[in-house]
Amino acid sequence: MLRVLVFGLTLAFAAGASAQLYRWVDKDGRVRYSDTPPPGVKATTLQPPSGAAAPAAPAPGDAAAKDAKKGPLTPAEQEAEYRKRQLGAQKAREKEEQAGRDAQAKQENCARAKETLAGLESGQRIARTDASGERYYVDDDQRAAEIAKARQSVSAWCA
């Protein structure tokens, strides 16, 4: 008894799914849709919807449009597409890692430039060694020149 009931319900739903759909314009100029057109009106038969929703039409020149025209991919083509995606993801990761390393180096250089500037502006005597290894103290003119260089470094690295 249950089988007959399930079979009857299946037939009822299948009949509703296979109904034709018509489109026409009424006397007021409004577009109407129905499963039965009125007599004496020129009605256009519409295609019934498929079981699944139809995908949106791809834009012309789109790579997906080319793939849709080809049909399903073979296993070798699927493997090639997979490897292509993996390679693209790896390149993106490497680029992101490089950007992180560059940002870290920039922060370190900024901190070093700020320390150098703070040391030069502190007013303490600064000693340097020359090419022969002898120690000498920086005079005020040299200090001013080094402060100017340090400020340029701070503005370059910390901007």
What is this structure's SSE topology?
Layout: H1 2-17, E1 21-25, E2 31-34, E3 44-46, H2 63-70, H3 75-121, E4 127-129, E5 135-137, H4 140-157
Helix pairs in contact: 3-4
Quick structural gist:
With 159 residues, the chain is mainly α.
Q: What's the helix count?
A: 4
- Helix % is 55-70%
Low-confidence stretches: none
Annotation, overall tally of beta strands: 5
Could you give the order of the helices and strands?
A: HEEEHHEEH
Written account of the structure:
The chain is mainly alpha-helical and 159 residues long. It has a domain of 28 residues. It has 4 helices and 5 strands. A 3-stranded antiparallel sheet has the order 2-1-3, with no helix packed on it. It has a two-stranded antiparallel sheet with strand order 4-5. A hairpin with a 5-residue loop joins strand 4 and strand 5. The radius of gyration is 39 Å and the shape is elongated. The model has no long low-confidence stretch (mean pLDDT 82).
